Structure formats: structure tokens, C-alpha cells
């Protein structure tokens, strides 16, 4: 049987961590429940240890002092050995009852990542009280689907199931809540198979509060979109920038051309200098885009060769 590890990053989740652990432990008695205590200042660690001991759960507690969900999951991916990895939030918003369908979809579709889709029935929109967060989700989804010609419905879902191959070949480079977006981008960019499966989503129980900040994280969403554009589609990013600079250069050069056409003399010298600078910068930008696009292609080529030679045995196959 495949060894399953349920990864639960937790930051100040004393009100929900016990119920989350028990929910997954009762549904999958053979699964390893891994709680990553991400520098919590409340009783999250104490309650986790007590729950593991009291209910004799096959659990592991790891303390990660570096703040951020990405750091917590990165630590788990490095230290935990399993055949199938499950990532879920520790706030009772995701249900263990959906996990059998997610794991089944992983196997039947030979997928690398299964994403729990919260949006299929409007559950996330109805349950989540922070409307700006929903708008941010939709904005990032539209942008990624447009760039990668994909049809994903829930880019930022925190409920996911991965194969060992994906986990052990995925470098986590972000720090915080951008993790889910980065996972999706890595999968799409590197050609991994991503399948979405419908799940039930519930808002946090009363008394439990989200660690996300609407305005602060809204700015992060905008930065993430720019970051996606620049790193994953460099030719598009620098190509559009080059076009913008080019037409700005033409616009600023119009009075200069008009001077020369009428008077055979240039009176708008500052505009002539500006338009020349914009044209040169446009050419440089286009060159950068071409170079980075070529570099990105070679990186994908090397990564594909690495996957073809990936022979790491699954824990269940080791003696």
C-alpha cells in the first residue's frame, strides 16, 4: 500500500488543530499526520502533542521558526518520506471526507497534482466573508489561465494531493501565502499533469481568525501577477514593455519630425533626446526578452531530462 502523509501547516490554530487532526486520522488510520508548527505563539504545539498521545495517532510534530506557510511546507517536503503527499490547512475549512476522491483521482488520471476545487458550486464565495480575497482569486486565475492557455478553476486552493515525483522535484522558492500559486505555476510550466476535483469548503469556525490581511495581501496579489509575467513568460513581459516604449518614443518624436518637415530644423531638442532614449530602451528590452526566453527554454529542457532520469524509489518499495 502507498504510504500517505498528511501535511498540516499551522500558525496559531489552537482552536482548530485538534479537530483537523482527528478528522484526517479517523478517515485514514494508516496515514502519517504531520503538523508543522509555524512559530505559533498560542497552544498549537501543546494541543498537537496531547492529541497525538491521547488518541494514539501516527503523528509527527515539526517546529519551523521561519514565518510563512511556504517555509512550513518546504520543511515537511524535505523531512517527510511518503508515496502520496496531502496538503491541507489546519483550520477545519477542508474536510477529510473529500480526500478519498482526491487520492482516487490522482491514481485514475495518472496525475501529478490534484487540486481541491472550492469554486465549482460557489461554496467559497458564499462561505468566505472576505470578498476582496475572492476577487483576488478570480484575478490571478484569469491571468494564469490566459498566459498558460489552461482551464483551472481554483488556483489558490490549499487542499492538494501530490505524487512523490512532484514533491521531490519541486523547489519551493516563495515564503508565504503565494505557495499555492507557485505550485500551480511550476506544474503548468514544467508540464506536470494537474487535475481539479470538487470539494466541500467551509468557513473557519466561530472564534478562529484568518492570518491573511486584505489590503497587505491584495498588494501581494498584484506583485504576484507581475512576478508570474516576468519569470514565467519573459518574452511576453519584456515584449509588451518594448512595444510600450516604442510607441511612446514615436509619440514623443512626432513634434520633432514635424519640425524637420516644416522648417528643416529641430526646435524640440529635449523631445528628440527623449524619443531616442525610449527607442534605445525599447530595443534593449526586446533583446532581454529574447535572451531570457531562450534561457527559460533550455531550463525546461534540462528539467525534462532530469524527470526522465528520476529513479527515486518510493518508501513503500524500499526494504
Topology overview:
Layout: E1 4-10, H1 17-27, E2 32-37, H2 44-54, E3 59-63, H3 69-79, E4 84-87, H4 99-108, E5 113-117, H5 123-127, H6 131-148, E6 160-163, H7 164-168, H8 179-189, E7 194-198, H9 214-232, H10 234-263, H11 269-308
Parallel strand pairs: 1-2, 1-4, 2-3, 5-7
Antiparallel strand pairs: 4-6, 5-6
The SSE string, one letter per element, is EHEHEHEHEHHEHHEHHH
Biggest beta sheet attributes: 7 strands, mixed
Shape: elongated
- By CATH, the architecture of the largest domain is named Alpha-Beta Complex
Structural class: alpha/beta
How many structural domains can be distinguished in the coordinates? 2
**CATH topology group of the largest domain:** Spore Coat Polysaccharide Biosynthesis Protein SpsA, Chain A
Helix content: 40-55%
Strand fraction band? 5-15%
With strands numbered from the N-terminus, the spatial order across the biggest sheet is: 3-2-1-4-6-5-7
Transmembrane segments: 237-257, 269-292
Protein name: Glycosyl transferase
Pfam families: Glycos_transf_2
Keywords: Membrane, Transferase, Transmembrane, Transmembrane helix
